[in-house]
Amino acid sequence: MTKQSRRPVVLVSNDDGIHAPGIAALAAALETAGEIWVVAPDRERSAVGHALTLHRPLTTEQLGPRRFAVNGTPSDCVNLALLGLLPVRPQLVVAGVNAGSNLGDDVTYSGTVSAALEATLLGVPGLAVSLIQPTGPASYRPAARAAARLARLLLQAPDRGATLLNVNVPPGQPRGMRITRLGRRLYSEKVVERQDPRGRRYFWIGVGPPAWEAGEDTDYAVVRAGYVSVTPLLLDLTDYPALRGLKDWEAQYRRASRGRATGDAG
To answer: Residue 4: what pLDDT?
Structure first.
């Protein structure tokens, strides 16, 4: 397809690497939504958050038509694709399908969510899609089909702006879709200390059994009930109630500054 193509251009990325089965299923399902370009890390980059590579150059390898591997993070891939690699600006970026959930507070660590976030920072809607891992072999097709339906909805929305949506899909066939808020995970993390054969200490950052806050409208509760969870996220991290509550600090700071200046003068 050329720049004159009428089909919307959709960029696909992930954090599990370009050879992961989730991204293959996602790209195939999205073919019905537009012209698909795949730009993804050349290896697994899970839990790297929103890291950008600034201390070394990035290289790409073309693995097929409109399919590139990058020796960087998920955010690198989206940044590189939007600002230089793709011949045309995409109308949508879809990240996934991630092998494992990205629920609640875990979105802050997720490379999948960060790929969609990077798109939104650059003015393109982003959709992050994750599959809750089943006890047996995983099938990514239902999650990929759900992502394709949501992608079409985003592309058809007249005033979608730079929307950022975090999607979690239960294993098997979903019962439907629900719009949710982020849940809160109650962490019981621990650091496991070990000793190598030379007597040096090393550590593993471990996570204890997960516990979640109660709330039927949370992403965790919805996927546990068998529904696809769609959570709109904001880039603005400002705590507005605290902003209002701290306004009186400005006057207190000025008074303290005047008092200190008077004391210094004396």
So the answer is: 46
